[in-house]
Amino acid sequence: MRLILPGFLLLLWPGLGAAAITVEVGENTGLRTWQWTHQGISLRLVQRLPDQTRAYLLGRGFPAAAADEAATSCFFGTMFRNDGTLPLDFDLNTWKVVQKGRDTRMLVREFWKNKLSGGAVPKAARIALHWSLMPTQQHFEPGDYNWGMMVFGLSPGEYFDLHMQLKLDGKPLAVTIPGLRCAPEELN
Amino acid sequence: MYKIVLLFLFVLSIAGASHGAGKGLTLLPEKPFVPDFVLKDVEGNTHRISDYKGHVIIVNFWATWCPPCRAEMPSMQRAWEQLREEGIMMLAIDVGEDEDTVFEFTASYPVDFPLLLDMDSTVSEAWEVKGLPTTFVIDQWGRKVYRAIGGREWDDPELLNQVRRLKQVP
Lengths: 188, 170
Prior knowledge:
The complex is a heterodimer of chains A (188) and B (170).
Chain A: E1 2-3, E2 9-13, E3 17-25, E4 32-38, E5 41-47, H1 50-59, H2 64-71, E6 75-82, E7 88-91, E8 96-99, E9 102-104, H3 109-116, H4 123-132, E10 137-140, E11 145-151, E12 159-168, E13 171-181
Antiparallel strand pairs in A: 1-3, 2-3, 3-4, 4-5, 5-6, 6-11, 7-10, 7-12, 8-9, 8-12, 12-13
Helix pairs in contact in A: 1-2, 3-4
Chain B: H1 2-15, E1 26-27, E2 38-40, E3 46-48, E4 57-62, H2 67-83, E5 89-95, H3 99-108, E6 115-118, H4 122-126, E7 134-138, E8 144-149, H5 157-168
Parallel strand pairs in B: 4-5, 5-6
Antiparallel strand pairs in B: 1-8, 2-3, 4-7, 7-8
């Protein structure tokens, strides 16, 4: 991994200690990874090429057209960890995807369940997608973590800011990760 | 000075970039009773959670495509090798996959505790599992006592002793 210094931000919240956002580029893959950390909590977002997601969905039994449509919806591989000392809660329904001053919501498990029910995607494939997405709501005690994909509903190559709402020990915490980019269709 | 600040920022980023297993077991103060289930394992045997009443049970929800689930499997096997002689049970419930997929997985990750199949994920939902892996430790009376979200090193002595202590509760 190569650390991109211009993308390395240090943010300070009075009384809450330091938080950091790092941006790295995979030397072999060329894919970007953003990581936000704060008091032992971390969220890591790794770009996924549409082809990676296509292959994953086809492998789980998605028909080609449905796999292609989903794969171009801006998937990230994510890891959310609580290595701190306080309980953490999140609800992805409260997060905002902000692009050019317009905000939209993430495409969470319930979105896909509604979109795909009754269509051409077999039940086993729908179940696989459901469980491979980050839970919409979660409660992490210290030591807990989840891996899962997050979907931001934008086209390949689009830039956006992610506005997150968390609760740390029951207290609201608002965080913005600026300058995220959906993986392009192909890396140059 | 500029270099020192950069070094500090870099160290800070690495400190938060832990990729390893999670830690510890969360005590569930309400100790809810678990919903019963009837599931087949990869060998076609039927299991009911109520069959194991009177035993402390580790119940793990997982899937073959889930990296932290795969990562914790060897430590679960090592834990099982210690616990089975002590009458503590271990069940791993695969979510949403068929028997061929799980059977193929066991060629690379050999385990000999029962691997159950929750193909339509109804049991996982009834047990209020949100992400994989999630593991519960069930007491002799069929109550959820501990929960772990994310993988663990299951043969960690401290963690094993936490499970063993449940067996000693009268």
